[in-house]
Amino acid sequence: MRTGFQADRNHAPCGSHLPFPRFPIFCTLRRIDTPKLRAVYSVRDQPAMTSSPSSIIASGKALNGSLLPRFIRWLRVMGYAKSTNRFYISSIRLLLEYLDELPATQVTHLEIRDFLASVAERGVKPATIWRCLCGLRCFFDFLNMGGLINWSPPRSVRLRRLKKTVPPVLNEKQVRELLAATRSMHERAMIEIIYGSGARAGEIRNMRVEDVDLVARRIRVLGKCGYRYVLFPRAVVGCLRRYIGERKNGYLFTSHHLCRRLHVFQGPNGAWRSYFYKYDPVVKRSLRAYWYLPKEKAQTQEQALRKLKRIIPKTTRDLPVGHRPLGTTTVRYIVMRVGLRVGVRVNPQILRHTFATHLLDHGADIRMIQKMLGHISLKTTQAYTHVSMGQVQKVLEKCHPRNLRVHGIR
């Protein structure tokens, strides 16, 4: 049985002295101990193929089924974001369903191309197809590293470059109208923080009260690439101080609603049954709890529902403030709801674009904007230079010879 680097040495490309010279991502793996590598990437000998088609199909499906859990463990080692892991895993599951009885070790670039074509037929966006291809490349690189294949078929598939789109932004008047349309301190503080700091929606969810520094006007947040600090202007301090109140810890933006609406069901014997979700501080999530009421204690559904609300623990109705963060789409929903009141199409990402564009319009350096947004590459921040037409207009008014003559300079 060949495991780990043994298979790599036997199947390395001609003229190469390293196991995987083509993929720089694998260079970091050489720092790991060999026993750990063999524990993660050891591949057991598969049963020999017989002439029976049923045994070939069974062995192919069994091999594909055993590769997915190993790939999931490898994604944890790589430390990708949770959303990236979910998308990669779902892409590989679709691929294995598409391959059916064909083993993943026998896939060529033709099967990869046909699979991407089937994904495109579902009407998804080109960016989704690109992300799916990235997931396939990561999966087959993992197989290549384990010695199951000698090359990565998705690396031979090329897609058209994505069209660069100009992100939509709001003008300063629309931002003032958006702030005036808020109806609670919760909405006002959230929009002030997003527009004032340019934080991402995921960073807004994970903000904690103990990480807010009102004196230095900064918040420590957990972003895509780890912890970083976001700054906010002086005008946001008063709003944020009123929203925090007397709280000393917990999540900054919290939810105060029930986990689900209460429903009461009557069984065949006339008894009333229901369930509710009780927050457990140990596991930091809500667990389902069942409820039963005999028929003699309640004759109607209204009476049973009234008794259920009395029995529900207080921690379920009024969860301790700061113990549960907002949902993944709650931040987006709150911002969009406020925008609908003034007829503006807006979401947290648009507010983030607006933050960067307005800074650029008022003369901020693009490298400072890169630092505030948390971008690793300056190319990502340079997309806002195509949006900031106000800055272009100022340069045109200042430097064009026709404008200089009108103002009497020449």
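Second entry:
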Amino acid sequence: MAGRNDYIASIDIGTDKIAVLVAEKEDDDKLRIIGHNISPSDGVRKGSISAIGPLSQAISKALDQIDRSFKLEIGLVRVNLSDTHLTCIDGYGRQPITEVVTSDDVDKVLASASAIPTPTNKEKLHTIKKKFTIDEDSIVDDPEGMEAEVLESKVHIVTVSSVSVRNIESCLKKCDLMLEKNGIVLNPIANSEAMLTQEDKDGGVCLIDFGAGVTSYSVFLEEGIVRSGVIPMGGDDITWEVARAFDTSFEEAKRLKEDYGCAKSSAIIVEEFIEFEQAANKDSHYLSSLQLSEVIEEAYIDILSTLKNELRHPDNLEANVKSGFVLCGGGAQALGCEELVREFFTRRVKIGVVQRNRISGLETILMDYRYANAIGLLLHQEDLSKEDFIMSKGRSGNGVIGKIKEALVGNF
């Protein structure tokens, strides 16, 4: 690392895997990945922490592997969060202006927009600045220095369960880790940092992440982010549908789905018969690839139908997704998934790829869909400034980390 230690780390905590990335900031502010690891997850169900002990052990194993392979000891981290009980709301602020907009006016209108109370069992995870409006007419990114009579602003506020945040904090504490300031990032927001271009966002786009435990999404329009959500269905639910349909174990159903499955049954050109084991009867059994794909397709449609319902209510966002859909996550890699989503929504659809203008590293890592969310965590800057990159070396209490007071989380 050429003697530098100003590196940052991200931990993507998933239902079935933990992805860890370490990056350093180069002179042009671009990030370069210098360490990576993927390990099995434990203690996570439907994207949420169900057992702190097993998960902290799984994270510690991943970090130990990073240390052994790349000689990198991690202290400060960013992590993701999936919360099926999240809520999103836009805050609105209005500020009278004396001739020209000043930085103080901008601060006041944003503070006004952000002043929305939260329930006692929830807390603000993100307060994301959107575009400004000058004199109820002109929409601008930065109003400072412009002539105006009235300045208006919107902020996108994401609130999540306080229990979910405390569980992450407790888990990291058991691993001798500390969160960066504002270091917990909602899963779909992290993914959008890695996968979406500004052109995608301005045109109206929905990013869908098909995870193992949950399916998360975010919607962007020209004004900025307008909706985020987590649907409590994912790849494991599809696997269970296969297991129930053919009376087999989860492990056998997963093998069938991954080796022979297709998300769009009409894409099956040549039907083949597949040998498999049932749960109660170990004799050889056979199923057709068409039957298998019909079950898988129906399970995908259940997820997409739930998403369509969320997009249509209460404000029919589906009609505004004019640039279409971007897919990521393990479920998006299934044969026929892209075609199925395209047919279901009658919109343009593409598989997401990591944008390379802000990050570099091994091509095998940048191309691996399993690291996409961890890359998004590294790139997330919405609530972080350059000064938040705190230098660290080591998880030891005797190092820098042991001398830094515990960072506040979720204060915006």
